[in-house]
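User: If only I could read backbone structure tokens as easily as an amino acid sequence. Those tokens are not coordinates but codes from a learned vocabulary of shapes. Could you go through the record with me and say what the backbone is doing? Here is the record:
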Amino acid sequence: MKKLIMAAGLAVMLTACGSQEKKAAEGENPFFTEYNTPYGVPPFDQIKLEHYKPAILAGLEEGRKEIDAIVNNPEDPTFENTIVALDKQGALLRKVQIVFGGQNSVNTNDEMQALSREMSPLLSKYSDDINLNPALFARVKAVYDKRDSLGLDKEQLKLVEETYKDFERGGANLSPEDQAKLRELNSKISMLQLTFGQNMLKETNAFKLVIEKKEDLSGLPENLVATAAETAKAMGMEGKWVFTLQNPSVMPFLQYADNRELRKQIFEAYINRGNNNNENDNKAVVRDLVATRLAKANLMGYKDYASFVLEERMAKNSANVYKLLDEVWKPALAKAKEELADINAEIKKEGGNFEAEGWDWRYYFEKAKKAKFNLDENEVRPYLKLENVRDGVFYVANKLYGINFKQLNDMPLPYKEAQCFEVTDKDGSLLGVVYFDFFPRASKRGGAWCGTYRPQSYKDGKRVPPVVTIVTNFTQPAPGQPALLSADEANTLFHEFGHGLHNLFKDVHYSGVSGVPRDFVELPSQINEHWAFEPEVLKVYAKHYQTGEVMPTELIEKLDKSGKYGQGFATVEYLAASYLDMDFHALSGQAADQKVLKFVDQTNQVPANFDVMDFEKQTLSRRGLLKQIPSRYRSTYFNHTMGGGYTAGYYSYIWSEVLDCDAYEAFVETGDIFNQEVAQKFRQYVLTPGGIDDAMVMYKNFRGKEPGTDPLLKNRGLK
């Protein structure tokens, strides 16, 4: 079952809260009662560390009893007593998991990481106990075999088919001996993924660039210097400046710091996370993960792990993924070489007698951009105050779909700095609640994401609105100062809120059909980015934080003209990571022979001496990756793929970009980027149905045709 993947995957996530574990009586544990909170949100202020373990264990016990009740039902298997009962099963466990999974990502500590590791094998076993239960599978198969004669509607039929497929892909048809092997492999994969993520967080937090001399701050924006001073103060180093490997710290440092040696120091620390031959080193973890996933794929009858997972995606197979990556790689690499020439020209202009290295790219690219377009990112930040950008996101959603937002005070919060909003539809009905958590901290994993603390569902025939959470790691402002975003951060907020809209608008009756394929899931988020820097949108939200002045037309024009400059670098670093992810999981003793023969022996085994970093070097150098551009994520901190969320799936962003660029054209073609008819179709056919329809069917229902790659290439300035 898809929802049972959560059980196996809970341990993948980082974990939150603190204090010593205690026995929690059921009456004191918030998970054992209905939440008595506004909108039914989790009572974050009441939930403590000692509540999680008893609730998880109780959820496992209750879930097993529910499975036994389905299996031992004396009546013949029906859609209601088997398929629906299975879809509803595990409610308590899901209730705990969804809070544990959300909280653990934003405020972890050693105690919660230990609890996560303790629970991992129990959750993996629970998931396998369901998928590999022969009596349960027999009942599911009985309903599946007569599905066409049951008078089911489209959603119900899809649930039956997905439920049966999940059992098949969960190993239900394997022999008892092979099922025992699968259990071992699943448990090992879960623990390795968890270990990878925990190591990565420790490595990111381990490095500090401490600056003592003011002259070493030359070139850095005032807000970055102020934040570094506050970071140092918090660490007991008042009077100094501390820069970290959190993106809002390291990236602007690489972009603006005049001190080349310091840029090199922080750059090399950033790209070698998990590759320092210490207790947090991830090379062996990656090797074991790749080997274990390959073994699982072979056990399930697939030549490689990519074939196993892609079968369920829009791409269907590795060949289609590589075809798209290759089509974009060639023009992107050519564009990156043009950008490198500009960078080297800037170096020479300043009298430098060296060729650009990785730690030089962002610094000299910024100078080249200024020379070409007379644009400095620091001119833009004053117009991108966080609250204004957030309101711009709300404005676009309102213009497209008529929905409204109201900030809620005195709400239980997942973290003390979080914000909470009620979202209502144009008819005034409640769509859901949205939390925002904007800033980085040592206890929070990096990146940006959207999740839920309660997914949309139905209860007693009534829609239960979702509780959505949007998490980012934006530049932390100095005390008393506003948060001023970069253009990239503003774009990220539009992106993540696109996921939020998908969660808010979803309207399905069964959790088993709520999800969409990984390479479709980025369509709602990425299409939302298209409105972020449209001139008519900027004029609404891009206001100077001090004067309230709307961003000048001249600056908007500069942004527009420079928007595609740098897409060579951005596309190449992304595609490099996509190739790396695919190559790791296309490893087999057959299909990958010509490309990576030396890395796999002829029995389809990844050898114990498999050199992860050599594999990375080979897979990228043979495609001509420039030495100045590292893969967006190197193997030892590539949590998207090694953590389990985007395994053989990092290509999904570019696959979805083919869809979102073509979909946005549907608005542009009408002459109105807020065309109500197009917006309604997008909501109806893409944002609402969950996974009831096939992904390409959903897209064609909206667009009337399949997409081509031309809009993507044009959008990135590659054509």
In short: The longest strand covers residues 430-437. Confidence is low (pLDDT under 50) at residues 1-25, 591-598. Residues 158 and 692 are 6 Å apart (CA to CA). The chain has 29 helices and nine strands.
